[in-house]
Design brief:
The model has no long low-confidence stretch (mean pLDDT 95). The radius of gyration is 14 Å and the shape is globular. The two termini are 26 Å apart. It has helices at 44-55, 57-62, 75-85, 98-102, 144-149, and strands at residues 14-17, 22-24, 32-37, 65-71, 91-93, 106-111, 114-119, 122-126, 132-136. Helix content is 26%, strand content 30%.
């Protein structure tokens, strides 16, 4: 599968958020969506990224964006992560990796010199027509909202 890029139609998805509410891409028709993929709840880099998005959430909303996080974690783990860090946006449950596969964000990684396959931290900016406007694959966790807003 070729990597998704700007101009591609965003793959549809259906999942549940941390509260068990069904969410799909079609729910955001006519809206701008930030779909950010991160490896795991409550890990250092993922927490920094989520807290940066939380701290700048109002700026993202004022720019017209809706925000969804996606990881392979369970509903319960998402609930704990949101509560612990007061996250104001939903996190999608993707334990079966269906969204991760559709967006092609699983692949080879190296951490502390060890090679393995895992979720590649990636953010997709999707426009009102369901088309990918931008892909951020070099996410800077400490300033991720600035990366999104500087377009």
């Amino acid at each position: 599968m070729a990597k998704l890029k700007a101009g591609d139609k965003a793959p549809n998805f259906k999942s549940m958020d941390e509260q068990g509410n069904p969410i799909s891409l079609s729910d955001f028709k006519g809206k701008k969506l930030i779909l950010y993929f991160y490896p795991a709840d409550n890990t250092p880099t993922c927490t920094v990224e989520a807290c940066n998005l939380r701290d700048n959430y109002e700026s993202l909303r004022k720019a017209g964006y809706h925000l969804l996080g996606v990881s392979p974690d369970s509903q319960k783990k998402h609930q704990n992560f949101i509560k612990k860090h007061s996250l104001p946006f939903p996190l999608l449950v993707d334990e079966d990796h269906s969204i991760i596969k559709a967006y092609d964000v699983w692949g080879p990684k190296i951490t502390f010199g060890k090679a393995y396959d895992g979720l590649l931290r990636t953010t997709f900016i999707i426009n009102q027509k369901g088309v990918i406007e931008r892909v951020i694959d070099k996410v800077e966790s400490k300033r991720h909202s600035a990366q999104i807003l500087q377009g």
